[in-house]
Amino acid sequence: MKLVKTKDSSYTFYSSKYKEAYHSISGALEESLKKFVEPCKVKDGMKILDICFGLGYNAGMAIYKAKNLKIVSLEKEIPDISQIKVPAWFEKTYKKIRTCTKNLSYKDKDVEIKIIIGDACETIKKIKGKFDVVFLDPFSPKKNPELWTAEFFKEIKKRMKKNAVLATYSCAGIVRRNLKKAGFEIRDGPCVGRRAPSTLANIPDK
Question: Cα(47)–Cα(170) distance, rounded to whole angstroms?
């Protein structure tokens, strides 16, 4: 893992295994806020399915913005985030994330987080209940194709409430086609750090 400072002064890792950074170089924390938390309109009392926990920024930013959250995160391998420096305003929140990576869980009056380690294609099948929000944040479809298939998206869909929203940074054609195959409606998400939009998906009303 190589530590990389992004343009909003927050840090991310570059993965030598996947040959990609965990976050947009334009701004790691900015991406979590503007591509995931804000478009999903995260608010108090929501249940969040966080696919690919990574450095914990998406979960952390949700905790920063709302209370009484229940978050289930899927991750194959958690990186060592002890060397990650975050802005002073985010440090209190990120302490919870650091604790969670050590214990695979964290709970206080404002949030309950559980990390499930393993292949997300399999661990998702063990998840009970339904969620208000899904953060879908794997490495790119070229590097992590198994987490962008219609089959995996169908497993996600089974665990979403009727009015739930899925957010992902990718607008790749294969991603959007597979979301549609899985029964989602899709629309453009925000353009942050690049010209192309992110993607938002929901279960259509019938």
Answer: 22
User: Tens of pLDDT along 111-141?
Assistant: 999 999 999 999 999 999 999 999 999 988 8
CB 71 within 8 A of CB 48: yes
4 within some domain: no
Residue 5 domain flag: no
Instruction: Calculate the alpha carbon distances from 82 to 94, 100, 194 in Å.
Output: 10, 12, 29
pLDDT-derived band at 193, boundaries 50, 70, 90: low
Domain residues for 146? 27-202
How far, in Å, CA of 131 to CA of 203, rounded?
12
Tokens 């208000």 sit on residue: 132
pLDDT value for 192:
75
- Going by C-alpha positions, the residue among 150, 11, 170, 139 that lies closest to residue 80 is 11
**Tokens found for residue 123:** 């661990």
Which pLDDT belongs to residue 90? 95
Residue 191 and residue 198: Cα distance in Å, rounded?
6
CATH number at residue 80: 3.40.50.150
Residue-level pLDDT at 24: 81
**Helix axes 150-158 and 173-181, enclosed angle (nearest 10):** 50
